[in-house]
């Protein structure tokens, strides 16, 4: 069933045990706010399901490529005990598995989500289970088990009666928080996500992890002061500590010694994409030294040689080291980058396009592997890709053609191919920016063609 925006959808539910006031509270706590009419008491099961607040109704219809990419990102967060977002992670993983057609896996993850919430909140039930029960109601509906679907709908109703929202006009704070956290992964509407976080925090200001996540996401002008306060409230969150250090460095503070001390703390923690390792490597790159960033990545790998996320981080920084080195990189450095990238590609088989592009570009930096780079690009260009992935590939191939092969006309043509694909992305914006710069160079032999292309270019 196609998910849709549910702000204008409502469901009255049963009037037993609470009268009209209870119905209004039920609808506004876990369902989209909207008017009630008597006829809605007879709505079929599907209408009730559509009115739920859960992953199946949050306007998330991503491409298969996006689903696979997000699945890998969730796996890299890890499942360490004490992760305050573990229930949300399992809920989203369950939804992704459902969208990928892996129904049994989906149900398993939804069940894990419920258990994670119970362990984290140290309670058998609570409003934090509303989204999870909504997901299970939808899942059983799609499995054809309407009785079980109805049972989970009843569980949502029971939660509402026990844990009403603070306001009849708004969702429950737990709903806003999980919706915001989930839409961070899929939505481009930053204002909407920020609004959901702010509503959740206003209703339950004691939820430290919500505030931390909101600050890391919003990145407002006054972020430094907000981060200082958040860091005092959430001192063990190393991702926050790293980001706060980075913001201070951007303001001109000398933070080298603090960075080295913080790196020790990051290395002592379990490996996770939320452990701060990628952020501290970035701080080293810009504010300590590139050489020390590489050494830090290698030390982390030495401590955890089987962690794919560390290999991904190390490969990224070897790539940047090679790209931005002031002198020709040593062959041993290139070989190490190639070795890491090959491993990463094998460890992320469903979303390795960017790493395959990186590998081709690294091959192009060595005289005896330039032919391999072109061969790799040609194989990638012949593959069946979604529009967003085509933009990624064409944009990188255009830069490769210019920088490594000095084929300027073909480079321009591929930047045009990127821009012509009707999909908004950073790669499209970058290619258009490059074409605009070329247009301003009056000696460019393709000037007329570029001008005409940009004049006729339609926005997606």
Uncertain segments: 1-29, 31-42
Name the average pLDDT: 89
Helix content: 55-70%
**Element-by-element helix/strand order:** HHHHHHHHHHHHHHHHHHHHHHH
Instruction: Give the CA-CA distance, first to last residue.
Output: 26 Å
Inertia-based shape: globular
Q: How many E strands?
A: 0
Portion of residues in beta strands equals: under 5%
Structural class: mainly alpha
> Radius of gyration, rounded?
25 Å
Count of alpha and pi helical runs: 23
Please outline the major beta sheet. none
Task: Describe the protein.
The protein has helices at 19-30, 45-50, 64-77, 86-99, 103-121, 130-142, 146-162, 173-183, 190-203, 208-218, 223-233, 238-250, 256-268, 277-288, 290-303, 308-324, 331-347, 353-363, 370-381, 387-403, 408-420, 426-439, 447-456. It is mainly α and 460 residues long. Residues 1-29 and 31-42 have low confidence and may be disordered.
Brief summary of the model shown:
This protein is mainly alpha-helical and 460 residues long.
List the main descriptive attributes of the protein structure presented here.
single chain; 460 residues; mainly alpha; 23 helices; disordered N terminus
Secondary structure layout plus pairing:
Layout: H1 19-30, H2 45-50, H3 64-77, H4 86-99, H5 103-121, H6 130-142, H7 146-162, H8 173-183, H9 190-203, H10 208-218, H11 223-233, H12 238-250, H13 256-268, H14 277-288, H15 290-303, H16 308-324, H17 331-347, H18 353-363, H19 370-381, H20 387-403, H21 408-420, H22 426-439, H23 447-456
Helix pairs in contact: 1-7, 3-4, 4-5, 5-6, 6-7, 8-9, 9-10, 10-11, 11-12, 12-13, 12-14, 13-14, 14-15, 15-16, 16-17, 17-18, 18-19, 18-20, 20-21, 21-22, 22-23
